[in-house]
TrEMBL record:
It comes from Paenibacillus piri. Keywords: Signal. CDD domains: PBP2_TMBP_like. Transmembrane segments: none annotated. This is Sugar ABC transporter substrate-binding protein. Coiled coil: none annotated. It holds the Pfam family SBP_bac_1.
């Protein structure tokens, strides 16, 4: 998912970036850190140079001023590069296809390109590294977040940004109408209907309506009804549970959303909610500042946050890693690369980045007052509760994820147009199964 980003890439950095990316390898072999207390332990990687690539993302901005701390601790020099999100995958793919040893460490989206990168041998498995240092406390990470970065039973990356789908609502509208915060999907539908007043430009509900973007958000409806995109190697988007979920989501958009919802991804959905024209919105918690920032939102003081409404299977929102840190399998600096990843995802650094509004995956940080200081108190409780029963994916976990999302999204579009959802689901299921079979070599 794309979040609101400050584009800080300068022309000078861009020049260094291009030069370095073309340069390929040449940073030396693996160097294991000396044991504590032995000579050189204070500067275990003296003289080493790492290339680290991030997306133009708030986490990248938060980690940048902390780099000198890491360099002082290790004796390493870190060259931090940044790409706009829509360029990142393309740049990394070019590098990895040419077997480049750089970048050493990179930011990536586990559920969007993680399976492709891992299957192509571009991501180094990290399982063995996580147990080398007991102080790292790998068990502190959310199991769902780790599930997002695991491919075929192998740990392909470490979570740095997590997301859960939550319910945003207008406190003032609910209070005035005497409506309790919806705890179930049926209650959400009833409340949206009651508050829907299009003649006065007030709409009951909004969410993503574009074919591909909507898939990640309908996922929580699907899980909460007891369904999933796949079960093992079988597509399951035409089960009764799935059809119920797609029907609920498409009906909410068809009956209670603002005009133009078919063209809405998250910026448009949050934008109209922030204009004070919608009662309910379901989307990622990481985007909350778009409706609480008084410079962007006319309803900033009246936004509430709630656990995703329960379906037949309870409240089962996605609880995913949207961004992780991976290690280039071709890097000549594996131990040094892990040292950076270990530092960047340590309790201390996660605390520092999370205080700036970057939701991390460490339970201990969420349990600390400092760790939650960058988020509204009401949201903190929702995040903690969501993490307990959350699902580790928000889309079909396939290499051909783009094709898969288009197939699933078509079901909702059919429902929004008043068409036959069952027929659309059967067709989508066939298409999804064909993608699965192709990837399995069947």
């Amino acid at each position: 998912m794309k979040v609101n980003k400050k584009r800080w890439l300068t022309a000078g950095v861009a020049t260094v970036l291009v030069t370095t990316m073309l340069a390929g390898c040449g940073t030396g072999g693996n160097t294991a850190a000396p044991e504590p207390g032995k000579a050189g332990a204070a500067k275990p990687f003296e003289g080493k140079k790492l290339t680290v690539v991030t997306a133009n993302h708030p986490w990248g901005e938060a980690i940048k001023p902390l780099i000198p701390e890491f360099e002082a601790q290790t004796g390493m020099k870190v060259e931090l590069q940044s790409f706009f999100e829509d360029q990142l995958t393309q740049k990394l793919t070019v590098q990895f296809t040419s077997n480049s040893a750089t970048p050493d460490v990179f930011m990536y989206r586990p559920l969007q390109e993680g399976k492709l990168f891992f299957k192509n041998g571009w991501l180094a498995p990290l399982d063995e590294y996580t147990t080398k240092d007991a102080n790292y406390d790998f068990n502190d990470f959310s199991k769902s977040a780790i599930g997002s970065t695991t491919v075929d039973g192998k740990l392909s990356g470490i979570p740095i940004i997590t997301e859960q789908e939550i319910l945003y609502y207008r406190k003032d509208l609910l209070q005035k109408a005497g409506i309790a915060v919806p705890k179930t999907l049926d209650e959400l539908t009833a409340a949206a209907k009651k508050l829907h007043d299009p003649k006065n430009e007030m709409y009951g509900f909004v969410a993503r309506g574009q074919r591909s973007p909507l898939v990640t958000q309908v996922s929580s409806f699907l899980f909460s009804e007891g369904g999933d995109f796949t079960t093992g190697d079988k597509a399951t988007v035409n089960t009764p549970e799935a059809i119920k979920a797609f029907t609920t989501y498409s009906s909410l958009l068809k009956d209670y959303a603002p005009p133009g919802v078919l063209n809405m991804s998250w910026p448009q959905a949050f934008g109209i909610f922030a204009q004070g024209k919608v009662a309910f919105l379901t989307d990622a918690n990481s985007l909350y500042k778009n409706v609480t920032d008084k410079e962007k939102s006319t309803v900033a003081d009246n936004v509430g946050f709630a656990l995703f409404p329960a379906g037949k299977a309870g409240s089962k929102p996605y609880n995913i890693t949207s961004w992780g840190l991976g290690m280039n399998s071709k890097t000549a600096n594996k131990d040094a690369s892990w040292e950076f990843i270990k530092w960047a995802t340590s309790k201390d650094v996660v605390l520092k980045t999370q205080k700036l509004g970057n939701p991390g995956a460490r339970a201990s940080v969420w349990d600390s007052a400092d760790g939650t200081s960058g988020f509204p108190a009401e949201m903190v409780q929702v995040i903690k509760e969501s993490a307990k029963g959350g699902v580790d994916h928000d889309r079909p976990v396939l290499i051909g994820v783009g094709e898969a999302r288009d197939a699933v999204g078509a079901i909702v579009l059919q429902g929004m147009s008043g068409g036959d959802i069952k027929a659309a689901a059967d067709k989508a299921n066939q298409e999804l199964q064909a993608i699965i079979d192709k990837e399995k070599g069947k």
